[in-house]
Write a structure and sequence with these properties.
The complex is a heterodimer of chains A (191) and B (577). Chain A folds into two domains: 104 residues, Alpha-Beta Plaits (2-Layer Sandwich), CATH 3.30.70; 70 residues, Alpha-Beta Plaits (2-Layer Sandwich). In chain A, strand 2 and strand 3 form a beta hairpin. Chain A starts with a helix and ends in an 11-residue tail after the last helix. Chain A contains seven helices and nine strands. In chain A, strands 5, 6, 7, 8 and 9 form a five-stranded antiparallel β-sheet that branches. With 191 residues, chain A is α+β, with helices and mostly antiparallel strands. Chain B is of the alpha/beta class and 577 residues long. Chain B folds into three domains: 185 residues, 3-Layer(aba) Sandwich (Rossmann fold), CATH 3.40.50.970; 154 residues, 3-Layer(aba) Sandwich (Rossmann fold); 173 residues, Thiamin diphosphate (ThDP)-binding fold, Pyr/PP domains (Rossmann fold, 3-Layer(aba) Sandwich), CATH 3.40.50.970. Helices cover 38% and strands 17% of the residues of chain B. In chain B, strands 3-2-4-5-7-6 form a six-stranded parallel β-sheet, with helices on both faces. A six-stranded parallel β-sheet of chain B has the order 11-10-9-12-13-14, with helices on both faces. A six-stranded parallel β-sheet of chain B has the order 16-15-17-18-20-19, with helices on both faces. In chain B, helix 14 links the parallel strand 12 and strand 13. The radius of gyration of chain B is 24 Å and the shape is globular. The chains are: A alpha+beta (191), B alpha/beta (577).
């Protein structure tokens, strides 16, 4: 990679496997805070392996910096593995919820068309408002947000990114490998 | 909490008996081979101190005068022995007073286990008396930390703490134990920690890396070794000498690496960094292969990174992968323990000699002697110079003492002029630059190496940051020799003000107390010297004292330390005056 490409600021997705322990989120964010780097989104969930949590962190920075960050994260004692991806190396989604006044549906069928054409769906219908759900990349959920705004959008919320890599390696196999080997988790480059 | 470990512990209770958590802490420490604890009691750690009352024949506890003193003492002990230093403090202010020392140990890779008391678990989060979130506060400056809220977790937490603190790249660990966990009884059983699945401290050496490095070294014309503290941390002093002597490559040391190689070794060419040696610095920008061993390219070593060793191919032997390519891009990275890497490298490198290349360093030495060293170490008139004091002490102790320095001008001068002969002898606060470090660290060093001479070299500013530890020294009769180089200034800041802030001496002048009187007040012998004619005798008398003793030397008020690489400049732009 040439040095210009290494300095270019863009989105990176970190996938971090950790032991399921209190304080891990703090330990991870300290790595960013120390370098004054913003986290765009952060999602924590149980992984498919019992006792192992997975953090998905999206941040905008350079390749140079993300490489340093990922090494610092791997250094944390309770981190089992940390992997950095560019957008083309993962499948990823976010989920957005939109609360729209029910009357917006009554005045003509433009909202209904918007929902239909954007691949969104109606989750709940209440007397006062309707909740619309859409999954997709942030640009897509943002587009729908902009289109719904003129209809008196009451509330909009979007989740952090969740992502799976295009690699076929299994988490369980990775953890087993880690337990068996003495090689350094910090030197593992791809997953 | 790793549940499988707990289950394991529960299954192994056959020959165990019920004891309190507080006693368990002490049993764990004994099982880890701990002999000395530095600490300070208080409410939340009182059960542990109560148990300690019954363990005084098995564990030596030294009561310091401030928790910062306890942690620096533990650091001093760890640094001279390579063993893990241990300190105790209570919750709240006791715990926060440890933080400076913990941060210091983190940046200088010193193995520590710090145990703090905490308010009872049912009061956590209620802003109880002396409650502070020490886990949150210490997280950025510890290698690992853990809060124990149940007695059953104590063996697990302490076993892990010792394993983590002193494997791989060493560092400080903090274990916070709530008061209720200390007083609860449980079935005690202790197993040392030998593996953590998420922590792999010793990277596997790859033979391909070694071959590539050896290739580069064998083809080089002007190779240059930079050695850091990693050499001493991994016990690779002998291997380094073997490697250097076989290849004939000159070697220089970082501040933290000092004493890793005897300074009179024919291949040793000096000390790197801001106030290091002239040749050692400028030749970094003239070598063709740079072999960095157990060092982290700190900004005080590299100066401007954009102008640092750009002509050289860089081989970096380093145990911590996050240090590789952090500041200086490597050509070949050997991610391994220094001793292991050097052992692997020695058979692969050719015997060689670089007489002309080494001669270039010697030419620089002559320049530095003429412009700086001779005048500093052998002045004929004017006030006493720091360098002449250090040179005399070095000669009288044959370079064999443990030299513990504080932070500032005296630190740079002491480490420039003390002629270290033995490993684990240069104890200083390198990364954090903690004033107040030397006096307590020297007590710890003396406890760790009672048969060695331990000299604390301190400025008049730093001395007053932890001066109360004179009480600890007296109470425990620790034969530390204390040298205060008094220029009535915060000398290093004053030097920068003179050179870079048009001599505006903003709040750097000190109106000092009578250090002799204070020291004598603590019951420690003290003397003061301000005339050159009396210096030799004073140093001799001071070093001949049986117990602890202080020597205050009044030195040139506006002496500057040279050479100097100005902050942010290239190592090539090192100034001799």
């Amino acid at each position: 990679m040439n040095s210009q490409k290494k300095q270019e600021i863009r989105d990176f997705t970190l996938s971090v496997l950790t032991e399921d322990k209190a304080g891990l989120i703090n330990q991870l964010t300290i790595v960013f805070t120390k370098r004054k780097i913003n986290i765009n989104s952060l999602n924590v969930s149980n992984s498919e392996v019992a006792g192992v949590s997975r953090f998905t962190i999206v941040t905008r920075t350079s390749r140079d910096m993300i490489d340093k960050i990922v090494k610092q994260i791997r250094k944390l004692i309770d981190v089992l593995g940390a992997f950095v991806y560019e957008d083309d190396q993962i499948f990823y989604q976010e989920i957005a919820l939109y609360k729209v006044p029910t009357k917006a549906f009554i005045n003509g069928n433009s909202v209904e068309n918007l929902v239909r054409n954007s691949g969104a769906r109606i989750l709940v219908v209440e007397e006062e408002h309707i909740i619309i759900e859409k999954t997709g990349h942030s640009k897509e959920t943002h587009d729908l947000y902009q289109k719904l705004e003129p209809f008196g959008l009451l509330e909009f919320i979007r989740s952090g990114r969740v992502a799976v890599s295009k690699s076929i390696r299994k988490t369980e196999a990775y953890i087993k490998g880690l337990e068996a080997s003495n090689s350094n988790k910090l030197s593992i480059k791809d997953f | 909490m790793n549940t499988s470990t707990l289950t394991l512990a529960k299954n192994k209770t056959d020959n165990s008996k019920k004891i309190k958590g507080s006693e368990a802490v002490l049993k764990c420490l004994i099982a880890e081979g701990v002999e000395t604890i530095f600490g300070y009691p208080g409410g939340a750690i009182m059960p542990i101190y109560d148990s300690l009352y019954h363990y005084q024949n098995k564990l030596n506890h030294i009561l310091t005068r401030h928790e910062q003193g306890a942690v620096h003492a533990a650091q001093g002990m760890a640094r001279v022995t390579r063993k893990t230093g241990v300190c105790f403090a209570t919750s709240g202010p006791g715990a926060t007073n440890l933080i400076t020392g913990i941060a210091d140990a983190q940046i200088d890779s010193t193995p520590l286990v710090c145990i703090t008391g905490q308010v009872p678990s049912h009061l956590l989060g209620t802003d109880a008396f002396q409650e502070t979130d020490v886990i949150g506060i210490s997280m950025p400056v510890t290698k690992w930390n853990y809060q124990v809220t149940r007695a059953e977790e104590i063996p697990f937490a302490i076993a892990r703490a010792f394993y983590i603190a002193n494997t791989g790249r060493p560092g400080p660990v903090l274990i916070d134990i709530t008061k209720d966990a200390q007083i609860t009884e449980f079935d005690f059983e202790y197993d040392k920690c030998e593996k953590i699945r998420s922590y792999h401290p010793y990277p596997e050496l790859r033979s391909g890396d070694l071959k590539a490095a050896a290739n580069l070294i064998n083809k080089s014309k002007k190779p240059y070794i930079l050695l850091g503290q990693g050499v001493q941390l991994s016990g690779a002093e002998k291997e380094l000498i073997q490697f250097a002597e076989k290849t004939g490559i000159p070697m220089a040391s970082t501040l933290m690496g000092l004493s890793g190689v005897p300074v009179d070794h024919p291949l040793y060419v000096g000390y790197l960094g801001m106030h290091g040696n002239y040749g050692a610095n400028i030749k970094t920008n003239e070598c063709d292969v740079l072999i960095a061993i157990g060092m982290r390219f700190d900004d005080r070593v590299t100066g401007d990174l954009k102008k640092y060793a750009k002509q050289a191919k860089v081989i970096h032997i380093e145990i911590d992968p996050s240090e590789i390519d952090k500041n200086v891009k490597t050509t070949i990275a050997i991610n391994a323990d220094a001793k292991q890497a050097l052992t692997g490298l020695i058979p692969l490198v050719n015997s060689a000699r670089y007489a002309e290349w080494i001669e270039e360093f010697r030419v620089c030495d002559v320049i530095e002697h003429n412009k700086v060293i001779d005048a500093e170490t052998h002045p004929v008139s004017g006030q006493i110079k720091m360098a002449e004091v250090i040179s005399k002490i070095s000669a009288l102790t044959f370079g064999e003492a443990v030299v513990v320095t504080d932070v500032g001008q005296h630190q740079m001068v002491a480490n420039r002029y003390y002629q270290f002969q033995n490993s684990l002898s240069c104890i200083t606060s390198g990364g954090l630059g903690t004033m107040g470090f030397a006096l307590p660290a020297a007590m710890g060093a003396k406890v760790g190496q009672p048969s060695r001479d331990v000299i604390a070299i301190i400025g008049d500013g730093g001395f007053q940051m932890t001066i109360q530890e004179l009480g600890t020294i007296k109470q425990n009769d620790l034969a530390v020799k204390i040298l205060v180089l008094n220029n009535n200034f915060l000398g290093m800041v004053r030097q920068w003000q003179q050179l870079f802030f048009d001599k505006r001496y903003s709040f750097t002048e000190l109106d000092n107390p009578d250090f002799q009187l204070i020291t004598k007040g603590y019951g420690i012998s003290a003397q003061k010297v301000s005339e050159r004619i009396n210096l030799d005798q004073a140093i001799h008398d001071w070093l001949s004292c049986e117990g602890p003793a202080l020597l205050e030397v009044v030195v040139d008020q506006e002496e500057n330390v040279f050479p100097m690489v100005p902050s942010g400049a290239s190592v090539s732009d090192i100034r001799l005056d």
